[in-house]
Amino acid sequence: MFSCSLPPRRAVWLAVASLALTLSLPAGDDARAQAVARPGPVAQNLPSLGDGEGLTVSAERRLGDRIARSIYRDPDYLDDPVLVDYLQQLWQPLLAAARQRGEVPAELGDRLAWELMISRDRRVNAFALPGGYLGVNLGLLAVTERPEELASVLAHELSHVSQRHIARLMSNEQRMAPWMIAGMILGALAAGSNPQAAGAAIMGSSAMAAQQSLNFSRDMEREADRIGFGVLTGAGFDGQGFVTMFDKLQQASRLNDDGAYPYLRSHPLTSERIGDMQARLPSAGAGLGPRADAAPRAAGLPSAALHALAAARARVLAERDSTRWSAWVEQALAPNAPAPALYAGALSAQRLGQHVRAADLAARVRQASAGSDARSLADALALQLLLSPGAAPNPALLAELREAALASDARAMVLFGSQAALVSGQAPRAAARLQSWVVERPRDALAWLLLSRVHQAQGQTLRAVRADAESRAAHFDWDGALERFKAAQSLPPAQRNADPIELAIVDSRRRDIEERLREAMREDEKR
Fold first, then answer.
1. The domain over range 410-527 is classified in CATH as 1.20.1070
2. Separation of alpha carbons 33 and 212, rounded Å
3. What would the pLDDT profile of 251-304 be if each residue is shown by its tens digit?
4. Residue 405 half-sphere exposure toward CB, CA atoms < 13 A
5. Fewer CB near the last or first residue (10 Å), C or N of the chain?
6. How far is the C-alpha of 510 from the C-alpha of 353, rounded, in Å?
C-alpha cells in the first residue's frame, strides 16, 4: 500500500497525547481541579467560554503548526488514505454544521487548520492541539461500533477548538507563554523511543505547572458536550451516538483500568454528563436531534456497514502481532463470515504474505458489500492488494478498478488509481490526475510524493525534485523543502531549461520557503 507509515515509536505519541490533553481536555477530578485553582477569575459562570482573549488566532495557529511539524515526523503518525477518507466523511459534515450553527466564525474557519491526524496507537483516545489540529488513535476507531459514536467524539473535540478553550486557558495563565508550552510538547516528542526521558519531560517542574494550570474546567467540558451534541445532530447524525459512546466508556471504566482507555482519564465521566446527553434525546423533534428530512444515508453520511469495515482496518493496522493476523485469517475462512471479518482477514493475509488468500477474501468482501456504501472500502482494499509486492496478477480486475479509481474524487482511490496507472505503463494519466489533485490540495504530502515518482518515471527530473520538495513543505519541513528546491535549481542546464515554466515555479517557491525560515528565526529570536 502507498502510505506514510513507519515502525512504531509509541512513547512519542504517548508524550504528546499527555501534554496535548493537558492543554485541551478536562481535569482528572473535581478535587484536583479545586486544588490547583488560583485566586481571581475561575471557569465558573463564565460570560463567554469561547473568547480566547490574549492569544491571537494567528499565534495559536503558529503554535499548532510547530507541534504538527514534529508529529508529521514521528513514525507513529499514519497517513492511511482509506482511513483518512472515512474520517473525512464524518469530519466534514460536523465542520459544516458547526459553521452553519455559528460555532465556527469565519476567522476561525479560515485561519485554523481543522486537520485530523491519525496515530497508530491502539489505546482508545482522541485529543485536540492548538491551531485546530485533532489527533485520533486507531484504538478509538477500532472500538466504536457505529459512525455516530466516533462522530460524537470528533464533535466534542471540535467544540473544544471552536470555543477556543485552549487559547482561553493559555491566556488565563499569564506566566505560561505559548512558546513554553510548545517547547514542552516538542521536548516530549524529542524524547523519542526512551519512555523514561519522555516521562521526565512530562513530569518536569514546568510541565507539571502546565498540567495544573491548563486543565479544562468542568464548565468547559459541559460546554463541549452541549455544543458537540448540537453539532452532531445538526450534521444529521443520530444523537444517540453520544449516549452509546458514554455507555461504552463507562462500562470500560468499571471493568478495567489497564491504561487502554486514556480517554477516560482525560474525559472523566460523571452522572451529570451522561444524564445531560440522555435528556437531550427526547428533544430531537424540537430541532435538537437529527433533521427529520436527513436520515444518515439520505444525507450521505456513512452507514454502520461502512464503519464496520473501517474499524476492521484500524484493528489490523494497529496490530503488530502476526499471531493476531493469523487468527483473523482463520475467522475470515468461516463459511458465513461477515464482511468486517472478511476485510480483517484479507488485510491480515496480505501482511502475512498470503497473497492468493488475501485476493480471495477481498473478492468476498466486495461481494458482501455490493449495493452499499461499504463497497467503496472493499474496492479500495482490492486495488491495494493488487498493488502490493508479490500479489498475483489480475490484469482485468486491475484495469476495472484503476479506471473507476481515476474517475473518483476519493483520496484513497485517486492515489491507488494513480499508482495503478503508473505500474500499468500509463504514467501520463497518473501525472495528469495527481497534478489536478495537488492544485486543489497543495498540502497533500502523500500525493506530492507519488507525483514525484510519476515524474521520475517519465524522465522529468526537474518536476520530480520539485514535487519532492512540495511533499516536505506540506509537512512544514522547511529545511528539507529548501534543500530540494536548491537541488532542482542545481540540475544540469539541459534539464532545467527544458521546462522554463516549472523552473520559474521552483525559483518562486524557493523564495517562499526562505521567507518561512526567516520568520521562524525571528520567532526564535523573540523567545
1. no
2. 8
3. 766 545 555 655 555 555 556 676 777 777 865 444 444 433 334 443 589 999
4. 31
5. C
6. 43
